[in-house]
Write a structure and sequence with these properties.
Largest sheet: 6 strands, antiparallel
Number of strands: 12
Shape: globular
Mean pLDDT: 77
Low-confidence stretches: 15-33
Radius of gyration: 20 Å
């Protein structure tokens, strides 16, 4: 067992406290830097490269019409797929292939948290011929909405988010730790 003098103990306690405060400040700053606030009818402008992944966890806060879409090329106007969370005043979530609605649900688990004002975690996974969207901080957990078809998902290179209609929406993307409580 290591023995310390009272002065050494106090110095160690100060160091640990200082280190913890600095660490929390850095985490807080990096977390805030990832919040994307989008006003109504925002175009798809922020593109994240997803060529080397086929799943994503993200957080959303808003009242309706959170949109996450997949594109073949950066800056392309036409999306390959999109998911609208909280469509029709937060009453439905929908998957679109191109402009065609291919699946939808009114399951409240797959809608936005409008009463709490907190970020809610969602996940999305894509494979050669399918898209699966769900609620939760782990891919594959909880209720989900799926589409499977002939459209080739392998062409997806970019992911982008936006909002539509009246309400602003905030997103958190690309966090390395998905077990953090986000409010």
């Amino acid at each position: 067992m290591l023995s310390m003098s009272p002065d050494q103990s106090q110095l160690l306690i100060k160091y640990i406290t200082w280190f913890t405060v600095i660490h929390l400040m850095m985490f807080s700053a990096s977390l805030k830097a990832e919040i994307l606030s989008l006003e109504k009818n925002t175009p798809f402008t922020l593109f994240r490269n997803v060529e080397r992944v086929n799943e994503k966890v993200f957080w959303v806060r808003g009242y309706a019409d959170a949109v996450i879409a997949f594109f073949e090329d950066r800056g392309q106007l036409e999306h390959v797929f999109r998911v609208v969370i909280g469509r029709n005043s937060n009453s439905r979530s929908v998957i679109f292939a191109g402009h065609k609605k291919v699946n939808e649900t009114d399951n409240p688990t797959l809608l936005l948290e409008t009463n709490t004002g907190k970020f809610k975690p969602f996940w999305i996974k894509w494979a050669t011929d399918s898209i699966i969207f769900g609620a939760g901080s782990q891919v594959g957990e909880g209720a989900d909405l799926q589409w499977q078809g002939t459209r080739n998902v392998d062409s997806i290179r970019y992911l982008s988010v936006r909002t539509r209609d009246v309400y602003p929406v905030e997103y958190i993307l690309d966090l390395s730790c998905n077990k953090v409580l986000i409010t």
